């Protein structure tokens, strides 16, 4: 019982330290208006504020006049039964309040935006009057349209600057209205000189909610990864984004005998570990026990070090004991609006 209470006290202490370490930087401001002379749009758009019971046919009927298109639901399709006399099964998306529309051609997006209203000084959102049948009547709902300009996916201030992967961070859970230039300005203001920002996109060149930021110095790089999270607050949205080192799996830098998928983000370590070496270097009760690790989101590296040790040799696991909660990994976060 005494050992259990001791382990629990260690766990509570480490959790309190971790909470203090994870206090995020906060950036507050307004996104600048977007002004383009000849923009090229992604053929995919975000549509927010759609009715929960909207059907795919209704969406295709509303957006079809602008060109051939299809609906991409944000999750797996769900089915519900139509109430009333004309019962039947209708396919629709999950109750998320938004969908993506994908057109065959970029010019369809241009034509759609001509029929949208836009607030003065807008940072990239338009509003469209969606007409759809509901209960045998035609209802009109104003929905938000967020297009994406392809050139907004990258920004570099000086093309002559060298890009160093060892000074690059991964940024996850980005809002869809954050362009590379906007992210450049925010990170440059908070952490120091940025040389490059790239926003990750899908096959339609639409952002997927993650990106990469390269700094000019190691001090700016460490300042960013040590904060771990960044709160971005605007009048349009508030978003907590995740900041991690940009990693590739490598061998364990201690034993050099195994793939080390567990990367210690603490500056005192800042290296890859296999499961066994992680346990030996971060025993419960030690100063290193508060360190957090990162893993790549792959089948091999998605495992807990303790689970990894279950198949290791006995000398890898000798002397280890401690609560599992000390080894919870950080995962990449998806795009959200």
Automatic annotation (TrEMBL):
<dbReference type="InterPro" id="IPR000504">
    <property type="entry name" value="RRM_dom"/>
</dbReference>
<dbReference type="GO" id="GO:2000766">
    <property type="term" value="P:negative regulation of cytoplasmic translation"/>
</dbReference>
<dbReference type="GO" id="GO:0008135">
    <property type="term" value="F:translation factor activity, RNA binding"/>
</dbReference>
<dbReference type="GO" id="GO:0003730">
    <property type="term" value="F:mRNA 3'-UTR binding"/>
</dbReference>
<feature type="domain" description="RRM">
    <location>
        <begin position="43"/>
        <end position="145"/>
    </location>
</feature>
<dbReference type="GO" id="GO:0000900">
    <property type="term" value="F:mRNA regulatory element binding translation repressor activity"/>
</dbReference>
<dbReference type="GO" id="GO:0005737">
    <property type="term" value="C:cytoplasm"/>
</dbReference>
<dbReference type="GO" id="GO:0045202">
    <property type="term" value="C:synapse"/>
</dbReference>
<protein>
    <recommendedName>
        <fullName>Cytoplasmic polyadenylation element-binding protein 3</fullName>
    </recommendedName>
</protein>
<feature type="domain" description="RRM">
    <location>
        <begin position="167"/>
        <end position="248"/>
    </location>
</feature>
<dbReference type="GO" id="GO:0005634">
    <property type="term" value="C:nucleus"/>
</dbReference>
<dbReference type="GO" id="GO:0043005">
    <property type="term" value="C:neuron projection"/>
</dbReference>
<dbReference type="Pfam" id="PF16366">
    <property type="entry name" value="CEBP_ZZ"/>
</dbReference>
<keyword id="KW-0694">RNA-binding</keyword>
<dbReference type="GO" id="GO:0043022">
    <property type="term" value="F:ribosome binding"/>
</dbReference>
<dbReference type="InterPro" id="IPR032296">
    <property type="entry name" value="CEBP_ZZ"/>
</dbReference>
<dbReference type="InterPro" id="IPR012677">
    <property type="entry name" value="Nucleotide-bd_a/b_plait_sf"/>
</dbReference>
<dbReference type="InterPro" id="IPR034819">
    <property type="entry name" value="CPEB"/>
</dbReference>
<dbReference type="InterPro" id="IPR038446">
    <property type="entry name" value="CEBP_ZZ_sf"/>
</dbReference>
<dbReference type="Pfam" id="PF16367">
    <property type="entry name" value="RRM_7"/>
</dbReference>
<dbReference type="InterPro" id="IPR035979">
    <property type="entry name" value="RBD_domain_sf"/>
</dbReference>
């Amino acid at each position: 019982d005494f050992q259990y209470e001791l382990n629990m006290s260690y766990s509570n202490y480490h959790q309190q330290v971790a909470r203090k370490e994870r206090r995020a930087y906060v950036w507050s401001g307004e996104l600048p208006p977007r002004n383009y002379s000849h923009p090229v749009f992604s053929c995919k758009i975000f549509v927010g504020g759609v009715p929960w019971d909207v059907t795919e046919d209704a969406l295709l009927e509303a957006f079809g006049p602008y060109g051939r298109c299809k609906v991409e639901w944000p999750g797996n399709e769900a089915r519900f039964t139509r109430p009333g006399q004309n019962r039947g099964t209708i396919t629709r998306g999950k109750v998320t309040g938004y969908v993506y529309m994908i057109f065959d051609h970029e010019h369809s997006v241009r034509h759609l935006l001509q029929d949208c209203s836009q607030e003065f000084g807008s940072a990239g959102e338009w509003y469209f009057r969606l007409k759809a049948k509901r209960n045998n009547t035609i209802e009109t709902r104003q929905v938000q349209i967020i297009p994406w300009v392809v050139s907004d996916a990258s920004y570099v201030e000086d093309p002559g600057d060298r890009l160093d992967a060892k000074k690059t961070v991964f940024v996850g859970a980005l809002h869809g209205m954050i362009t590379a230039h906007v992210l450049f300005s925010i990170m440059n203001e908070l952490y120091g000189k940025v040389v490059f920002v790239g926003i990750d996109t899908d096959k339609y060149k639409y952002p997927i909610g993650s990106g990469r930021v390269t700094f000019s110095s190691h001090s700016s790089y460490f300042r960013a990864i040590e904060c771990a999270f960044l709160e971005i607050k605007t009048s349009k949205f508030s978003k907590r984004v995740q900041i991690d080192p940009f990693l590739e799996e490598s061998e364990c830098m201690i034993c050099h005998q195994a793939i080390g998928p567990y990367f210690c983000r603490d500056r005192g370590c800042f290296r890859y570990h296999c499961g066994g070496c992680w346990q030996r270097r971060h025993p419960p009760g030690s100063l290193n026990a508060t360190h957090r690790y990162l893993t790549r989101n792959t089948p091999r590296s998605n495992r807990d070090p303790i689970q990894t040790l279950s198949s290791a040799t006995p000398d890898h696991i000798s002397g280890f004991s401690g609560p599992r909660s000390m080894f919870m990994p950080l995962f990449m976060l998806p795009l959200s609006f």
